């Protein structure tokens, strides 16, 4: 059986994701599509709109064969670490290719860029440091400038969010020395942050979240599969959608009350950013005010949110970074595929957390407990511990 | 000028405290009465009903000459540490005596008991360990049993809460080798925890807090001086009284989200109590449920609350234990006295926190910021930093 891998957040699963899934199957001629999905918290340093279990079910109901969780450590950090964790999992699950959407759309551009950087690691890092010396440069700006200094002919625009992710997938494959092919499709119709969808059936997840938070179900219906719609509506009957606002009092408490030495040893905290965050927390009365007070040219909103999330989740520099495969959902095909390859998987595989090695999953269990502090999710504090993967049988 | 010291919490200041204050002045013939008062959090592991600034003003308005704060580290720990911190401060402020209320009422009984224990430290500790080996014994029970094994003729009942505190004052004076006399009065009419006052003007602070939380101002009026009543009413116009319930979501978050290694290195955490607290936090939906689930014969409610408070305030075993004198309020006499002795005070003295050595007061500033997480106190998050001591001039 031929497998391809996709790397997703599905926050929530929508028609654009469906197109991506169908293209993945078509272009790679895969029998099995495996999605590595972030859990309760996402790569931009935000909580997911709804729990991973509902999101995994959306994915399987829409045709994904296997949904596995990207552990918190990888899921909530910068693109390079995010990509490394996802590629390691997909390789362990035996995919021949990774398929992603990008602004560029040409797989060769990504392979070339990855190759240049892997071969010129030392001059790249030197250029990176030089651009970062200018305090006005954000990491993203410095990074893009350093790459284009090394490879002036590069056709890949690395200021585009999906190109960046795709590049990191290619880079992770090269660095880990994996025999995984890259396949990509040009994203159409909905740029990542588009607030106003123009296409008749495809909108960005950002736009759909806005519709959902505004209870505009009539509009939502237009942009998500029926299976997603039903799950969203069912969730919404008894719960609220989750946002950073739900965690603001806890973040403020943590920033104000934790000893400064503890903030400093939090993963991702450097350059004295802890002081900036702490000062902002003292004066802000909600998360938006906090963000507005902390943002600078140097620190993008995403970087601030990621750092705030590491502090909220009390991730220290010594928190485990071990990777593993946590099953969240499976189609019949996914189950059959898993049965075939099970004996040859290089990473620990976890079906139900209560039966897993506690040390291995402790950090993700903590993260899901934290997620349950969102109002209306109180009863889910132990859900992650006892829930079995969603199985869709015909 | 002759000074006497009293050690108080004033939660809130009531007629019994007034009697104690007047007796202190009379019996010790002091010109100056100095009160060392706990700040935002108290020795039984609870937040104070209202901020230290209002409580200090109540004290000065009722006749105390000097109110200084017992730093968080001392104020929120077991009686021995509490007493050590308070005695050190009072000695630095030049008191000739310490005056306290007790069930016993005989100063000699306290001095004798302290002497026995100081002289027989090794056999006492051995006896203590022996009694603690029986897991059914609480610390208080083991401690009382060990003392009476060493001193069978002791007339001091060390199961009584005020006798225990008085004993620790005497013990701290002996251990620190201070030339401070002990004076005591027998407490009358209101045992510490009496819920139903019988005396016409004296009720326990516990009973008064119940009246206050029930908004029974007519009854409160009977048991507190007018100056207290006015301050309580003024506070209540724009704020709520503070209780553990206000901090429950933060405590739960901290118990659930902090790495277990961090909980273990919290001051006062031992014998695996962190697991018991963590488990209880997962299932409890309010602080009372949490307390009910954690209490055992071994762990009294007070011990659990003190431990929970150390976790909430993120106090590690390495948090500073340095003592200092923080001025909260002064009468004219108190100001004159302070002016005279100022040059000979062995501890750092702090009038306004914003002008103090930040490292010295950091822990108490954090505690007061934490206190401001109580609803209606949000605006007071920086109050401790900028407030000057209350001065009562004629």
TrEMBL record, chains A, B:
It catalyses: cytidine(34) in elongator tRNA(Met) + acetate + ATP = N(4)-acetylcytidine(34) in elongator tRNA(Met) + AMP + diphosphate. It comes from the Bacteria. ATP binds at residues 7-20, 101, 162, 187. It is found in: Cytoplasm. InterPro entries: Rossmann-like_a/b/a_fold, tRNA(Met)_cyd_acetate_ligase. The keyword Transmembrane does not apply. Its main location: cytoplasm. Keywords: ATP-binding, Cytoplasm, Ligase, Nucleotide-binding, RNA-binding, tRNA processing, tRNA-binding. Its EC number is 6.3.4.-. Belongs to the TmcAL family. Catalyzes the formation of N(4)-acetylcytidine (ac(4)C) at the wobble position of elongator tRNA(Met), using acetate and ATP as substrates. First activates an acetate ion to form acetyladenylate (Ac-AMP) and then transfers the acetyl group to tRNA to form ac(4)C34. This is tRNA(Met) cytidine acetate ligase. It comes from Listeria newyorkensis. The lineage of its organism: Bacteria, Bacillati, Bacillota, Bacilli, Bacillales.
């Amino acid at each position: 059986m031929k497998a391809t891998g996709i790397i997703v957040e599905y926050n929530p699963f929508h028609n654009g994701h469906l197109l991506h899934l169908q293209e993945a199957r078509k272009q790679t001629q895969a029998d099995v599509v495996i999605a590595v999905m972030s859990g309760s918290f996402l790569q931009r340093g935000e909580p997911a709109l709804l729990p991973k279990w509902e999101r995994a079910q959306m994915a399987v109901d829409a045709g994904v064969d296997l949904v596995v969780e990207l552990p918190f450590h990888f899921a909530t950090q910068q693109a390079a670490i995010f990509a490394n964790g996802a590629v390691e999992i997909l390789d362990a699950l035996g995919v021949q290719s990774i398929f992603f959407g990008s602004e560029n759309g040409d797989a060769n551009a990504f392979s070339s860029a990855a190759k240049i950087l892997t071969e010129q690691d030392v001059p790249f890092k030197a250029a990176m440091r030089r651009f970062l010396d200018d305090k006005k440069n954000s990491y993203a700006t410095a990074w893009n400038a350093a790459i284009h200094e090394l490879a002036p002919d590069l056709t890949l625009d690395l200021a585009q969010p999906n190109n960046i992710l795709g590049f990191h997938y290619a880079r992770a494959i090269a660095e880990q020395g994996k025999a995984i092919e890259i396949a990509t499709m040009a994203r159409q119709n909905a740029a990542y942050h588009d607030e106003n969808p123009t296409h008749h059936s495809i909108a960005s997840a950002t736009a759909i979240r806005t519709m959902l938070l505004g209870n505009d179900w009539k509009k939502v219906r237009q942009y998500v599969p029926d299976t997603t719609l039903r799950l969203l509506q069912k969730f919404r009957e008894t719960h609220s959608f989750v946002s950073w606002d739900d965690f603001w009092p806890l973040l403020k408490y943590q920033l104000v009350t934790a000893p400064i030495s503890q903030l400093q040893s939090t993963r991702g905290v450097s350059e004295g950013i802890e002081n900036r965050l702490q000062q902002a927390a003292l004066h802000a009365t909600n998360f938006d005010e906090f963000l507005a007070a902390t943002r600078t040219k140097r620190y993008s909103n995403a970087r601030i949110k990621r750092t705030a999330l590491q502090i909220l989740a009390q991730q220290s520099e010594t928190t485990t970074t071990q990777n593993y495969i946590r099953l969240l959902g499976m189609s019949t095909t996914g189950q059959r595929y898993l049965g075939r390859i099970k004996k040859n998987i290089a990473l620990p595989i976890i079906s139900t957390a209560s039966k897993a090695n506690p040390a291995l999953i402790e950090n993700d269990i903590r993260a899901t407990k934290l997620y349950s502090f969102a109002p209306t999710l109180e009863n889910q504090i132990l859900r992650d511990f006892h829930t079995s993967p969603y199985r869709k049988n015909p």
